[in-house]
Design brief:
Layout lengths: L3 H14 L7 E4 L17 E7 L2 E6 L2 E6 L5 E6 L11 E6 L3 E6 L3 E6 H11 L11 H10 L5 H4 L11 H11 L12 H23 L26 E5 L4 E5 L6
Antiparallel strand pairs: 1-6, 2-3, 3-4, 4-8, 5-7, 6-7, 9-10
Helix pairs in contact: 1-6, 3-6, 5-6
The structure holds zinc ion.
Length: 258
């Protein structure tokens, strides 16, 4: 599952390894989200990669490619003549430069448009991103407070409130904050909401650090996927259920999360 930190780590890797490439060829498997003639990318220089929430954005002199990897997507960078490590049928996008080629496998979303259109559309759909340089803590709090009847466990996955939180972060944030995912936002004290937002930022950054170092994030997981496990704080049994209506795996210590 690709969450904000994984998307950001990919952007950093692409900047490092695809730096300076000029597009010689492009292959896309689906034209559903291709809003410009694909040939317009030819001859354009790769300028920068960044993430917005769980999206990865590649910028090429006025044009942009958005990639959303969802669960199974990956991005690999090869030398231009190197053969692909995965089967051809999994390829969704290839951007070939002079020295390197960038290959996207299995991503359900590949979108190409003018950079201006793509970034403004994404920014209007997404809440503040704890991993962006202009992370807006106050706006994140304000956004949460607009959904007062929503359960906090549900709201944290809503990308228009805070961008980049996936199911792992959601579970780990609420455990660290000591908040039960079933609490509605209006039942939370403002200090509890601030705590959730601050842990969200800190933990996203810790996840990112591990991803950049290509380490497994296992050591950061205190509750996620701990089926029949015991709470690291009180020793009590961790409860597992699917939270409604989102039907996502949810782990909670009912002693520590009130
Ligand atoms: Zn506990």
């Amino acid at each position: 599952m690709v969450e904000g930190p994984t998307a950001k780590a990919y952007a950093i890797k692409i900047n490092r390894e695809f730096n300076g490439e000029v597009v010689k060829d492009v292959l896309v498997k689906s034209f559903r989200r291709i809003h410009i003639p694909i040939g317009e990318l030819l001859g354009k220089r790769f300028v920068n990669a960044d993430s917005l929430g769980k999206n990865i954005l590649l910028l090429f002199n006025g044009l942009a490619i958005r990639i959303h990897l969802m669960i199974y997507g990956t991005i690999h960078i090869y030398s231009v003549n190197e053969s692909l490590l995965k089967p051809e049928r999994l390829v969704r996008l290839i951007v070939k430069g002079c020295g390197k080629k960038l290959v996207v496998y299995n991503a359900p979303i590949v979108e190409i448009d003018k950079a201006e259109n793509l970034t403004s559309r994404l920014k209007s759909e997404l809440g503040p991103d704890p991993l962006s340089n202009n992370w807006d803590r106050e706006k994140a709090i304000e956004n949460l407070l607009k959904f007062k009847n929503e359960k906090i466990g549900v709201a944290l996955l809503n990308q228009s409130i805070i961008a980049g939180v996936g199911n792992i972060l959601r579970n780990e944030i609420l455990f660290r904050a000591g908040i039960n995912p079933e609490r509605t936002i209006q039942s939370l004290k403002i200090t509890e909401i601030e705590k959730i937002v601050d842990i969200c930022e800190l933990l996203s950054k810790e996840f990112l650090k591990m991803k950049i170092e290509e380490k497994r994030i296992g050591s950061l997981l205190l509750i996620y996927n701990k089926y029949n496990g015991n709470c690291k704080i009180c020793g009590g049994k961790i409860k597992f259920y699917m939270q409604k209506p989102i039907n996502r795996k949810t782990f909670v210590c009912t002693n520590c999360q009130k």
